Amino acid sequence: MSDIDQGTTVGERLPSPPRDAAGLGRTRSWFRALVRRHRPDACADLTDDAVMVLDELVTNAVVHGHVCRAVTVDLAAGRVRMEIDDANPRLAHAGEGAGLGLRLVARGASRWGQRCGPEGKTVWAELPLGRSPADHRGES
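^ that's the sequence the OP posted. Answer follows.
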């Protein structure tokens, strides 16, 4: 069990990205184990928020992205960044007319965005992951 020191980042990639909805539970379990292993002091509520955002991003990749190519998580002191690669080069949107998923991501994440390439896109999100929600008051 290791705690992340200031300035240290731990990055891991899910060994086998989910290909369908059945793989989502495995992705959530992998993420929770990663947080327990590297951030044992992380607030459970903040971890739950991060799981919800990860779940929405991976679900979108599976349902709308044709195929989820990769799930990568970087943990650093006080934050988590997740990147989900899919095979659909079309940008996702969280505005009016969009589904609930990306609106939940926009509300739950400190920041989120996406970048497109010729063979797909990466949607990413960053969230606080501290000892308590009070550690992150004032962040937006």
